[in-house]
Amino acid sequence: MKSRTHSAAGPLTGADGRLPDGSAGDDPLARADALLHDGRYEEAAEHYRSARERDPQDWRAVTGYNRAIRRIVPRWHFEMMHDHERALQYEAAIKQVVTADHLVLDVGTGSGMLALMAARVGAERVVACEGQRVVAETAMRIVDGAGYAGQVDVVPKMSTDLVVPGDLPRRADVLITETVDCGLLGEGILVSLSHAREHLLTDQAIIVPGRARVLAQLVESRALHQKNTVGELYGFDLSGFNELASLEYFDTRLRRHEHRVLSAPFEVFRFDFHRDGPEPRHATLPVVPTTAGTGHAVVFWFELELVPGIVVTNAPDHPTTHWKQAVQCLPQPVAVDPRDPLVVDVRHDGLRICFTGITKEHEA
Ligand SMILES: C[S@@+](CC[C@H](N)C(=O)[O-])C[C@H]1O[C@@H](n2cnc3c(N)ncnc32)[C@H](O)[C@@H]1O
What we know:
The protein is an alpha+beta fold.
């Protein structure tokens, strides 16, 4: 999500890997470099991988492969797999709902972990889809290695491209998915579940997670404010750069930044994954500050109810969650006081939650 990298100068070749004079030159990695430059990371990774297999000492192939694969498979995949709380809660929920006559659909299988859990508790069959081809191929090898290839089919497709019958023999009885980012909606869960309910699931299908709610808190933090704002520095007025500031949230651990909370947690949106679609929503929420201060940012997180009684959360008081929290900086600091209730304006467009305004109730 966040990275500070220097990209090397662009390649001297075109997208087809040819030099400006139209020749291919004698550089077998020119094509891979061109694909990487064009953002065709899966193909670039494939070319670099072949070159690396031909010569494991070819440092350009090794570094090229590293750059391409990190773009396809961000590092959070590893952190996520090591999030024991997340894994144990999902396993407990899967044990509770999956039975021997169930066809289970795992949307966004990644390593295949949740599909394997469903197979281990005895699901008749599991179809595990994964939209990133290189990840899907890896999951196939993992499933095979675990001895579940006869029970789990990995399909290298986005769930929205699956067909029944075909990719699934019939509509599935259970859908499991962990396709949520720190702000809940960023991986497109509302779109994929709405499609799955219409095309891939039985009418009575159980969806894990079943529900979620998003909570937020207003915070004072100069450190967070500085992540989206600049003023006079080193004798220069750099505030013109604020035109490039954004209302996009980012993931971070709140406790790593000096801050004061200015409100109690307040509920932003609730989602019922058996019913809700990606249609945009808008809410105006009354919030009473608990202390006087300057609001610089909103921190928000989710409570994901897998099944009733089993919840995973990335709340700030959960120090080990791999998701961290979502933080959105406010465009302007807001002076707040407990005697002056606020109205918080928030929207989502099906993919991103955005706090679009904080006003005093008496001015609203
Ligand atoms: C957050 S990871 C979770 C992986 C795995 N389910 C787990 O819990 O360890 C989500 C994965 O789902 C994939 N993905 C997201 N939405 C998808 C969709 N609608 N269909 C197929 N794959 C999807 C992403 O490429 C990513 O590999």
